[in-house]
């Protein structure tokens, strides 16, 4: 549920960026958290969101320790993936709860990407390290895109409990949302590779800058709008996934 809220808000912010690129909040996690904080009972909502994401951490940790649902859920590869997801959501939970406590800014993805890239480039073999990481993110984006097209997410859902109309809707949201995430990850990874090749940390981009870069393509703001709609679709899919997830 928490993941769904974040992606829905990031998608909405990305649409704003498409038509007002010079203003508005960042289209990333920090922008989404700031958007929530500005609403009535925003502080309470942030704490609830942080608790929800922390719940995802515990869920992924339990999958890493005991295996996920499905016939191959206990395989080492599946457990390793669950462990990686637990680490990722751990960072997200920390940033959300830090923001709620007033001790953080939600972790601006652009500033973090540039800082981490700069430190990595200064290490021995740093260019190779950053380049390899970028290629890894590109590969992950392609993997996410491919799984969405092949509708692999159905393996984790109780599709038999859905009506025909609901299943078609969930499939559409899952495909569209997964494709958008895949494109976003692959683009961010490509920018990291460029930063490594040119030895320029500033070429690395977080989510906000990557989304804004879509407006510089021949398609103009409409490519960003398409990706933003996809991110909102993934947010909606996350709610459906929480409802019909296999246990």
Question: TL;DR?
Answer:
This protein is an all-alpha fold. The protein is built from nine helices and no strands. Residues 2-66, 84-151, 177-245 form the DUF1206 domain.
Structure overview:
- By secondary structure, this protein is mainly alpha-helical.
- The protein has 2 domains: 29-107; 109-247, no CATH class.
- The protein is 73% helix and 0% strand.
- It has helices at residues 2-19, 29-37, 42-66, 76-101, 109-121, 126-149, 164-198, 207-213, 221-244.
- Helix 1 (2-19) packs antiparallel against helix 9, helix 3 (42-66) packs antiparallel against helix 4 (76-101) and helix 5 (109-121) packs across helix 6 (126-149).
- The longest helix is centred in the last third of the chain and has 35 residues, at 164-198.
- It is globular.
- It starts with a helix and ends with a helix.
- The mean pLDDT is 81.
**In what range is the share of β-strand residues?**
under 5%
Helix-and-strand structural type: mainly alpha
The number of domains is 2
**Could you say which overall geometry the principal axes of the C-alpha atoms support?**
globular
Domain DUF1206: 2-66, 84-151, 177-245
Transmembrane segments: 40-59, 80-101, 128-150, 170-199, 219-240
Protein name: Membrane protein
Pfam families: DUF1206
Q: Topology, please?
A:
Elements: H1 2-19, H2 29-37, H3 42-66, H4 76-101, H5 109-121, H6 126-149, H7 164-198, H8 207-213, H9 221-244
Helix pairs in contact: 1-2, 1-9, 3-4, 5-6, 6-7, 7-9
